[in-house]
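Long-time lurker. I teach an intro course on protein structure, and each term I like to show students one example going from raw sequence to a predicted 3D structure in token notation. This year I'd like something fresh instead of my usual example. Would anyone be willing to generate the tokens for the chain below so I can use it in lecture? Attribution to the forum is fine with me.
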Amino acid sequence: MKVCVFSSSSNAIETAYINEAIHLSRLIGQNHMTLVNGGANVGLMETVLKEVVTSGGDTIGILPEKLNGHNLASQYAKKLIISKDMMERKSMMREIADAFVALPGGFGTLEEVLEVITLKQLDYHNKAIVFVNTNGFYDDLFRQFERSFAENFAKEAYRKLYHIANSSDEAIEYLKSYTPSQPVNKWYKVPQK
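-- Reply from a regular --
Happy to contribute to a lecture. Here you go:
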């Protein structure tokens, strides 16, 4: 299984987030999964790459040409793919991966995970998506999701598009037992022609 992990590029985050990223990475390696990520040598991206390799796992990093020019390629990406830009990078990550895990992260992580949720909602894929909610990091985002459900911006059935895990152990177990569900019609009422 190829698992795409979205995560922070910050080197200034709390130890609890680093420790959970290390734990997830070791589980990926020990379960003979292949990591797919952004391929950079900063933040949790580098931590995850290094720990998967140390645990005997395979890694694929996908780095945009512009970032590669800033010497940001990780030495722990066993296979490094250089994309022409961020859009191609995300497209390749989605294509290669069999599942997606979001560790805590900033704007880029949010954009990536919300995009794969949206594409699943629109039936472009039916792959597992998991948030690892370390320290309740995503609680405010989930409250926003709840408002979307309550005010009919999102259907109740969309709760099945993603899974919220409180730990990496729970996330890996979810991926191992994941069964794709039937797509849900996105529209409440389709306009008649």
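Some talking points for your students: The chain has seven helices and seven strands. The CA atoms of residues 1 and 28 lie 9 Å apart.
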